[in-house]
From TrEMBL:
Pfam families: adh_short (PF00106). It comes from the Bacteria. Belongs to the short-chain dehydrogenases/reductases (SDR) family. This is SDR family oxidoreductase. It comes from Candidatus Paraluminiphilus aquimaris. The keyword Oxidoreductase applies.
Amino acid sequence: MKIAGKVCVVTGGASGIGKALASRFVAEGASAVVIADLNGDAVSAVASEIGAQSFAVDVRDESAIAAMVAAVESEHGQIDLFCSNAGIIGVDGEPWWATGADNALWQRMWEIHVMSHVYAARACLPSMIARGDGYFLNTASAAGLLAQIGSAPYSVTKHAAVSFAESLSITHGDDGIKVSCLCPQAVDTAMTAGTEGGGVAGVDGMLSADAVADAVVSGLDAESFLILPHPEVEDYRQNKARSYDRWLGGMRKLRRLFTDPVGQ
């Protein structure tokens, strides 16, 4: 897919990866770029800066996503690419249990990392299927292919995000619907602020949001399902598939490096 001449929507577009994607789409010659974010003032400012259109939207609200999609389709005729990108981070509580995060965080991550993708697909698919063409870029994480040490709800919901993207591709690929799933490791955004080198996710280095946007444009051009800005992730994914037990042992060792360095 070439971005030039396309109508693109990006959620979580006020900062980080979302802002970088929207900026790059404008530079690539998209016919319209629409950015949505919970922070209405911030997304409006970004839209003015880059020459985009903005909506203040809580992606946990299906009716708000549906209303935005309807408004964009009414004004621009169609949505060619919907980038479901909004995300949050949170850590497990103490003691360091996989179940340590409270229920509210689990629920919030489920709604933002999974259901927002579902809501976007429900809103966009009817018109996309009717014309036999449409593209979804769902931002997940390398954690959705591997694991996020220190945040079980992040890891679990990002796995679900990858699975939903797979389901979209399997179910609607024959309808002309294309799907890509963005799975970076550490990216220099507000989500990694305050961590040294991106923490455990930064073991292979931290990329800029602009570098991720470069990878996305290349991945969309190739229509690749997995877009991996950190190429090492594919090796880790293959290692996990070859020997689950060995991979789990390696992940436990990595956890010890970041949580109990004295006890090595």
